[in-house]
Amino acid sequence: MQQAITLTYNGMTMRGMEHIPERAAGEQVPAVILYHGFTGHKLEPHRFFLKICRALEAIGCACYRFDFLGSGESDGDFEDMTVSGEIAQAHAILDHVRQDPRIDPSRITLLGMSMGGLVASLVAGDRPDDLHDLVLLCPAGSMYDLMGPMIDLHLSNPELQVLDYGGNLIGRPFGEDVRSMNVYDRAQKYNKQVLLVHGTADVTVPFEVSKRYIETCYGERATLHPVEGADHTFNKFEWEREAIDTIVSRLKQA
């Protein structure tokens, strides 16, 4: 069953969807929380997140996907968005799911894509005991590594309060936040298994970023699945299908 849901955070409304599989009376089911990427939303390109949720619901997993504040249909403005703000919202979503009586709190997985993967990796580092598994799709790692020159140019001009990024306005707090964030030290505190899925032809977040996560944070606890030739958001049916099948296979065994 799929239905729209809301979550209040700091007086603002985050809008999302939940997918709850059929279950016996009183039965608790595992859950997957999906975190979208930078400038993304709870559907993501070619309805990728919806397709993941439907595939997982079919194997008995509940799924929750919200728009972060300032993105999609949620309250707020994009120019107020920061990674730290999204991490705080991601914690609130995790708390919400853990308190749902339909959900087994010992079997919750975080799944994040791109900057949502960065968010998921840091929430997992903060709360490893509250999670069963972690899935990172083309995780952004340090946003400063990816956007440093643009961020430095923005912050060096005190008169420039916002940047126009494809119609989305980026505020100065975003750059200040990512420039001071120690991503990998925080992420490595997650001490359980992790699956990384990454396109080998990703030019937005290079494939090497997933390798860095493994070398710096996860070591032998990580499984890296390369999708040969795929771009950042798996924009071909065959790439999308391979990514979804890999996720489902992983969580079917969990």
Automatic annotation (TrEMBL):
Name under which the protein is recorded: Serine aminopeptidase S33 domain-containing protein
One Pfam family this sequence matches: Hydrolase_4
Gene Ontology molecular function: any one: carboxylic ester hydrolase activity
Top-level taxon in the UniProt lineage: Bacteria
TM segment ranges: none
Domain Serine aminopeptidase S33: 30-143
Signal peptide range: none
Entries under SUPFAM superfamilies matching the protein: alpha/beta-Hydrolases
PANTHER family in UniProt: ESTERASE ESTD
